[in-house]
Each structure stands twice: as structure tokens, then as C-alpha cells.
Amino acid sequence: MIPQKYTAYVFSCLMALIMSGIMSMVITLFNIGLVDGIWAIWVKAWMLAFVVAFPTITLVLPMVRYLVSLIVGKSTDL
Q1: How far apart are CA 33 and CA 4, in angstroms?
Q2: What pTM was estimated for this model as a whole?
């Protein structure tokens, strides 16, 4: 198991992996369609997208948490 102090990094990595994979596939299909070699084209795009997404998510995560705390009210449930 990974220590709990690394939660933000694990979250960022998984979020970046999933979102960059989905978005790169959608954008690749939108731009070039189902062509021969789409798998290789998509994987190359995914790798680049992940390299950008992981540090971006890691850097903006604290700001997003703060903004969410401003938008979402405190729970009064018991």
C-alpha cells in the first residue's frame, strides 16, 4: 500500500491517466476518424496528454479544492 500522505499524487495520477486517455481518444477520433493505425496514433497522443495532465492536475488540485469549499455549503446533517 502507498502511504496516505501521497493521496493527492495518487489521485492526480489516476485522474490524469483516465481523463487524458478518454480525451485524447475523443479528440483523435474527431480529428482523423477511424483510420488504419488509429491505435498507435491514439497511444502517442495519450502519452503526450498524460505528460501535460499529471503535473497540471497536481498543481491545480489545491486551488480546485479551495474553490469547491467556497461553492459547496457546509453540511448540517447529523
Answers
A1: 42
A2: 0.80
